[in-house]
Task: inverse folding
């Protein structure tokens, strides 16, 4: 066990866990933040996507010991009341079916738009193809990303 | 106006004041058996379903509508309350939706599956809304001393020509004292103002902000995490294990083996027995449990043939033999091919098919095969359980809580009314969560630990310990005469472990000489419902075959289907045809129109078409395929659906689009195979799922507009995707695709 001071959604949180513990389980089990989802445990489905210093990262294979001073943002930290342009676009297009993967989809999409504010269809495919949606909402996700890209304050 | 009598003598509606004032109307009914035809197929008792839901109105005019059925992405938490709100006549903006409670003793199974939710609730929920509205009118009439017939309502406001008006909330306390009216009138579809108008997902904001909605998010103080170690292969069982090292690891509370069912246990109709003895690993956190699990040293041994007793609905008991065998997929397909050549059980015969085939000028015969499919819901199986001496609470993702409750009561030796089942949002279901052995496992573990426990499956557990779509095969034969008329049709189908063929589906009813038969091979690999069970295979096989038959007849594939359907409509052959030829024709006509089928501007397109009937609805697709980066790619899909009244159109479009993507993904890539009982796929690196870049660029969805009471929607658009994709593949590659998935090896033609 080891103590870590993690920067999560702008706050410093201390955890005492095994160094090999993936950030996914630190968030879910130790910090009571279940918005980041478990899907595969091997970075194949994207349900666990978080931002690490603004970059989309699969938290299920990222040990807590590797975080260092990097800032973690989770779906809970994107905005509390769905005011982030990507969340707003998701609601506008009524994207979700079961909704389980959507937190990860939104985190991948918001990271994409931050680095590439005007993505092409191909850019979207490249950035999003690591996120599986079993309900098949891919078309709406793409439309929502395009809508979010049009809103000037997309971050 | 439609005049609805109170449903039956067993129905009751009762009202009561809620704490803090206001009207609460609870209702219960036996569902319309016709609307629930799918449920009937599942061997439920005749008086199968009491269901309950609630409307609450606060004095400050907030209307709370509880959703009775579990939500797994079909959007019932929006569409079902819309139906109540329509007849209640309230402003949708003032409606708050909550998931209802589960009460099997009073209200029966609250079942999500069989594309049933909207159709089985269509009248009862509207009836409930209309009844509450009538009670509010009565309360206002008494308060104002005017005849109830002179009072009108609009968006939650009661009004009288004298100028008097009141919000529902103001009358809600008095309304709770009014006798429940026996007869209420329901709106005519032309007067709908909420139903048929798209409403956003009532849980959308919670979803996009990562709120804890799902079973896997469930947490209480002192809760332990559990995992199970199941045998590494179907046909194997636990022999012995050593967990000495694992038990010493940080955070581990206990490791023990347990039996799912005791010897001789009578299982319920949806109780599966995949592996009866497993090892439970229980600890403080998920990662600690995962790590300790790896240190367990276990020995496994082959099972011997096992009997299981299933006590089905209506008291029908069956005894199944579970064979002892380590199955290998390639060998199982060979076994199916051998079975296909043997005489099968006849399930339908019209005319004289033997003579028709004897007299045929041309016989077309094709065989179609499909593997097991894993459901792969994004949220792996999980469940919370807190079993105490005198009561139990279980909570999590489950399609059929009412079916699990009697088994839980027996396993835990508790009366059913001491078992509380909470229904969380499900991260997908597709049929998988109609089978609740994971609920029982959680309960068994909690009982042993005397603590609240959440059981979590890893993805590997979820995929290799599944309740799969069965393996299927079907051989179709068509007899053509010298004028290329279809004079005979024969389908023989079989599977592991069930026969897929529906006796009375199209083209039965449209061909004078028709024969259908089937057979089954038992297996120790567990199977169950998978989005449109059996139909998802039949539509692929039959609709591909009809495409070849149309080609042989020299006919356009849509025109050929229309001709057959028109014949079935005018002069149906045989009895019990389960489809309505007019609605089938309507969907094909709409599809033809909207896709621009046969139009010169589409002449260069590589297109495939298929249409299918299931769950009382009709759906068809035209698939436009191109070669992209050397691979076939579905670029554009036009869909037509007749599901009667469409309650929430944009959400319905979403569901059809999802079914199309799901169908393309499973037809191209889906498949779970075994070698000596071991699943050869165990996670998303070797079980390929359709991804963003493989989804079509456009899916245009069109609904037939009519006033027919809603029929199924979650499942019907899925099966015909397979056939349309296969037929587009033929146009694109010049090859016919007979084996699923289509990326697998195809027979040499």
Result:
């Amino acid at each position: 066990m080891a103590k870590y001071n993690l920067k999560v959604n702008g706050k410093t949180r201390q955890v005492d866990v095994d160094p090999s513990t993936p950030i996914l389980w630190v968030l879910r089990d130790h910090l009571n933040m279940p918005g980041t989802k478990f899907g595969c445990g091997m970075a194949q489905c994207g349900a666990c996507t978080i931002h690490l210093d603004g970059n989309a990262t699969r938290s299920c294979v990222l040990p807590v010991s590797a975080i260092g001073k990097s800032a973690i943002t989770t779906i809970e930290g994107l905005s509390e009341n769905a005011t982030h342009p990507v969340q707003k676009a998701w609601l506008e297009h009524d994207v979700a079916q079961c909704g389980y993967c959507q937190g990860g989809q939104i985190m991948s999409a918001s990271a994409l738009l931050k680095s590439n504010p005007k993505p092409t269809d191909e850019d979207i495919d490249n950035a999003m193809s690591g996120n599986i949606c079993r309900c098949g909402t891919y078309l709406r996700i793409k439309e929502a990303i395009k809508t979010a890209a049009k809103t000037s304050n997309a971050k | 106006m439609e005049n609805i009598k109170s449903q039956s003598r067993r129905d009751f509606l009762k009202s009561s004041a809620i704490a803090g004032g206001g009207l609460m109307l609870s209702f219960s009914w036996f569902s319309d058996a016709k609307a629930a035809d799918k449920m009937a197929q599942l061997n439920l008792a005749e008086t199968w379903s009491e269901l309950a839901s609630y409307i609450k109105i606060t004095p400050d005019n907030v209307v709370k509508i509880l959703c009775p059925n579990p939500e797994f992405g079909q959007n019932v938490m929006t569409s079902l309350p819309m139906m109540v709100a329509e007849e209640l006549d309230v402003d949708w903006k003032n409606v708050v939706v909550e998931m209802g409670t589960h009460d099997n003793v009073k209200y029966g199974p609250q079942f999500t599956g069989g594309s049933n939710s909207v159709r089985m609730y269509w009248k009862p929920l509207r009836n409930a809304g209309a009844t509450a509205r009538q009670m509010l009118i009565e309360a206002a009439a008494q308060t104002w001393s005017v005849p109830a017939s002179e009072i009108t309502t609009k968006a939650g406001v009661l009004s009288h020509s004298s100028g008097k008006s009141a919000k529902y909330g103001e009358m809600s306390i008095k309304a709770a004292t009014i006798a429940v009216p026996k007869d209420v009138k329901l709106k005519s579809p032309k007067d709908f103002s909420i139903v048929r108008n798209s409403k956003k997902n009532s849980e959308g904001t919670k979803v996009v902000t990562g709120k804890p909605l799902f079973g896997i998010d469930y947490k209480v103080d002192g809760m332990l995490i559990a995992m199970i170690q199941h045998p590494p292969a179907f046909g194997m069982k636990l022999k012995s294990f050593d967990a000495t090292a694992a038990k010493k690891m940080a955070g581990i509370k206990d490791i023990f083996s347990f039996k799912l069912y005791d010897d001789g246990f009578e299982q319920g109709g949806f109780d599966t027995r995949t592996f009866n003895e497993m090892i439970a690993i229980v600890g403080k956190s998920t990662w600690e449990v995962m790590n300790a699990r790896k240190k367990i040293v276990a020995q496994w041994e082959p099972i011997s043939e096992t009997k299981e007793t299933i006590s089905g609905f209506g008291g029908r008991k069956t005894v199944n033999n579970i064979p002892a065998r380590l199955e290998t997929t390639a060998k199982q397909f060979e076994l199916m091919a051998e079975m296909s050549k043997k005489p099968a059980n006849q399930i339908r015969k019209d005319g004289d098919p033997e003579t028709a085939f004897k007299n045929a000028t041309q016989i077309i015969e094709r065989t179609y095969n499909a593997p097991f499919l894993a459901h792969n819901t994004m949220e792996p199986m999980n469940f919370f359980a807190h079993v105490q001496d005198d009561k139990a609470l279980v909570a999590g993702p489950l399609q059929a809580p009412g079916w699990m409750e009697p088994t839980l009561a027996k396993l835990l030796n508790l009366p059913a009314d001491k078992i509380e089942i909470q229904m969380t949002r499900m991260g997908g279901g597709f049929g998988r969560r109609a089978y609740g052995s994971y609920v029982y496992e959680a309960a068994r573990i909690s009982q042993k630990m005397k603590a609240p426990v959440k059981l979590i499956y890893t993805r590997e557990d979820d995929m290799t310990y599944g309740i799969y779509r069965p393996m299927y095969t079907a051989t179709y034969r068509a007899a053509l005469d010298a004028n290329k008329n279809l004079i005979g049709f024969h389908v023989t189908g079989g599977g592991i472990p069930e026969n897929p063929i529906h006796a009375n589906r199209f083209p039965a009813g449209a061909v004078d000489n028709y024969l259908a038969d089937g057979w089954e091979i038992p297996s120790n690999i567990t199977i169950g419902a998978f989005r449109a069970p059996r139909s998802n295979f039949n539509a692929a096989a039959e609709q591909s075959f009809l495409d070849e038959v149309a080609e042989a007849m020299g006919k356009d594939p849509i025109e050929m289907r229309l001709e057959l359907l028109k014949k079935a409509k005018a002069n149906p052959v045989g009895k019990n045809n389960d489809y309505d030829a007019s609605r089938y024709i309507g969907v094909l006509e709409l599809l033809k129109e909207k896709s621009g089928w046969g139009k010169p501007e589409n002449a260069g397109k590589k297109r495939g078409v298929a249409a299918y009937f299931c769950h009382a609805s009709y759906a068809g697709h035209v698939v436009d395929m191109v070669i992209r980066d050397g691979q076939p790619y579905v670029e554009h899909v036009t869909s037509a659906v007749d599901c009667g009244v469409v309650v929430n159109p944009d959400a319905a479009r979403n569901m059809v689009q999802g079914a199309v993507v799901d169908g393309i993904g499973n037809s191209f890539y889906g498949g779970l195979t075994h070698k000596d009982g071991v699943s050869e796929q165990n996670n998303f690196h070797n079980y390929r799922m359709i991804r963003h870049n493989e989804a079509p660029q456009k899916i245009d969805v069109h609904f037939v507009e009519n006033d027919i009471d809603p029929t199924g929607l979650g499942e019907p658009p899925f099966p015909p995707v397979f056939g349309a994709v296969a037929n587009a593949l033929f146009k694109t590659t010049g090859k016919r695709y007979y084996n699923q998935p289509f990326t697998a090896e195809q027979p040499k033609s």
Remarks:
- The first strand of chain A starts at residue 2 and ends at 8.
- The beta strands of chain A are 2-8, 11-17, 49-52, 55-58, 71-73.
